[in-house]
Amino acid sequence: MTRVLSCIQPTGEVHLGNYLGALRGWAQGQHSVAGGQRDAFHGIVDLHALTVTEAPEVVGRATVELAAMLFAIGLDPDIATVFVQSHVAEHSQLGWMMECTVSFGELSRMTQFKDKSARRESEFVSAGLFTYPALQAADILLYDTNEVPVGEDQRQHVEITRDIALRFNHRFGETFVVPKAVTPKAGARVMDLQDPTAKMSKSTGSDAGLVNLLDDPAEIARKFKRAMTDSDGEVRFDRASKPGVSNLLEILAACVGEPPESLATRYTQYGPLKTDAGEAVVELLRPIQARYHELMGDRGELQALLRKGADKARAVASVTLARAQSAVGMLPA
Ligand code: TYM
Fold first, then answer.
1. Is 199 part of the annotated catalytic residue set?
2. pLDDT tens across 13-32, in order?
3. Which residues form the domain of 58?
4. For residue 234, how many other CB atoms are within 10 A of its CB?
5. How far is the CA of 203 from the centre of ligand 1 (A)?
6. Which atom of ligand 1 is nearest to the CA of 18?
7. In the chain, how many domains are there?
C-alpha cells in the first residue's frame, strides 16, 4: 500500500497555484490505481498558520472554508482522511522531537524561511516561522508516508524531512518511513500573472497576478487578459527568456492535459493564448465553485466530517508517536 500525505495552510484563499501544484493531484491520488492500494491523508495545518497569525477569529474561519474547498475539489471523505492538524495533538508532540533532530544550521538554509522573514521586514518574525520545517516533518513522518504530493516550492521541506527521518533512524533505530516528494508534470510552479518570475502566492504579489479558486469567471478572464507577457510577440515555451508566455502555456497545459511545447505551436499571438488560458481555468473551476458554495451551506456536516477525519488520523499518528518515544527510550507515562 502507498501511504500519501500532504497538507495546506489555512491562510487566505486557495489559489490556482495550490490547485494545479497540489490539490488536483490529491484528488486524483486518493484512488487506488492498478498496481496498488493508496491511502491518502490530507491535513489543514492550522498550527503552521499560527506562525503568521496575529488576530483572533481568523484561523478558525479559514479552516472551515478550506475544509469545504478540499471536499469541493474532490477529496472524498469516505476514501481520504481530511483532518485539522490541531485536532491531532500528536503533531505538536512529535514536532518537538523533530526540533531536537534538526540543526539550527539546517533550518537557517530553508529558502522559505529566508523569503518569508525577509518579506516581513519590520513585522514580527516568530520563532515558529523558523522551526516550521520540524513541525512539517512531524506531519509527514507521523503517517509512515511514502509520497508527499506538493508543488515545487515544498521540495526543500520534504528533503529536510528525509534528512531528519534518516538521522532519527540512525540514532535510535529504524522508526520512520523515509518519504519522497511528488510533483505534477504541469503546474508544479504556477507563476504570478503580473510578475511571472515570482511564484503565485497568497502572501506576495498583486491581486491582479493571483487567481483565486473562488474568483468569478469575468474576474478570471480579466486577470488572464492583463497577464504580463513580453514585447517580442513570439509564442514559444521557454521559461528562462519568456516567463510570462511560458506560464500561460503551462497553465493551459495543466488544464487541457497537453504538453506546453505543442500548445505553443498553435498560437501566433498572445491575445488568443490569454483568452484560451482564461477560459480553460474558468471551466476547470466552475464545478468546484458550485460544490464549494453548497458545502459551505452546511457547517455542521463539515465539522462532522472533520471530526471523523481527526479520529482516523489520530489512530495512525498515535501509534507512530509511541514508536518514536519508545525508540528514544522515554519513560512511558
Ligand atoms: P501551502 O499552504 O503554502 O501550499 C499548499 C500546496 O500548494 C502548493 N503551491 C503551489 N504549487 C504550484 N505553484 C504555486 N505557485 C504554488 N503555491 C503553493 C504548495 O507546494 C503546497 O503543496 N508547508 C506547506 C504546508 C505543509 C505541508 C505539510 C505540505 C505543512 N505540513 C506536510 C506537505 C506535507 C505549505 O505552506 O503549503
1. yes
2. 999 999 999 999 999 999 98
3. 2-187+299-328
4. 13
5. 12
6. 7
7. 2
